[in-house]
Amino acid sequence: MFIHNKRLQYTVRVAAPNPGLANLMLEQFGGPQGELAAAMRYFTQAVTEEDAGRKDMLYDIATEELSHLEIIGSIIVMLNKGARGQLAEGVQEQGEMYRALTGAGNDSHITSLLYGGGAALINSGGVPWTAAYVDTIGEPTADLRSNIAAEARAKIVYERLINVTDDPGIRDALGFLMTREVAHQMSFEKALHSIQPNFPQGKLPPKPEFASVYFNMSQGDDMKGPWNQGENAVAEWEVREATPAVDGGDGLATVDLPPQDLEVVEAMKLRTMSNPEAEPLTGADLGKLGAPKKL
Question: 267, CA 20 to 30 Å: which among 42, 102, 210, 251?
Answer without folding.
Answer: 251
